[in-house]
Amino acid sequence: MKNIFTNVSLTPPPKLLPVLQKLKTVYSQWYIYYHILPKPHRHSLGWRIDSLFIETIEAVATAGFLAREEKLPYVRYAIRKLDTIQVLLLVLWENKSLTSKQYILIAQGVEEVGRNLGGWSGKLRKENSPTKQERK
User: Could you tell me the CATH number of the domain that includes residue 46?
Assistant: First the structure.
């Protein structure tokens, strides 16, 4: 029998933006916890948090490919989604659907991504400010 994978190139995946890489890592950890949440929360809060993570990843990935002046709305959208994730994770923890260890691990990752997005947003606002545009 012929191996169908003989012509497949095993190249490493493309480099991601650092903030997108961190977000992917946090989401991967969340995804593990998502599947072991108690059923009532898995199909409500868990599902919503998962959706918000995916929307955040989409917004950050989109912003990464846009021209500088078009990025800011996507970064701000990602920040809003991340803020909502933080609140919903807290609700899961308060209702004992996440252990303290699980909550801390995910919340710290989300917080770090939030700081990175906040820095990116500030940099974009500064670069796109009218005074910066006038000097060009």
Answer: 1.20.1440.60
- The domain total for the chain is 1
b/e burial code for range 55-65 (CB count within 10 A of at least 16 → b): bbbebbbbbee
Q: What is the pTM for the complete model shown? A: 0.84
Render each residue's pLDDT in the chain as its tens digit; 136 residues: 555 556 656 666 678 899 999 999 999 999 999 999 999 999 999 999 999 999 999 999 999 999 999 999 999 999 999 999 999 999 999 999 999 999 999 999 999 999 999 999 999 999 988 765 555 4
Asked whether residue 132 is domain-assigned, the answer is: no
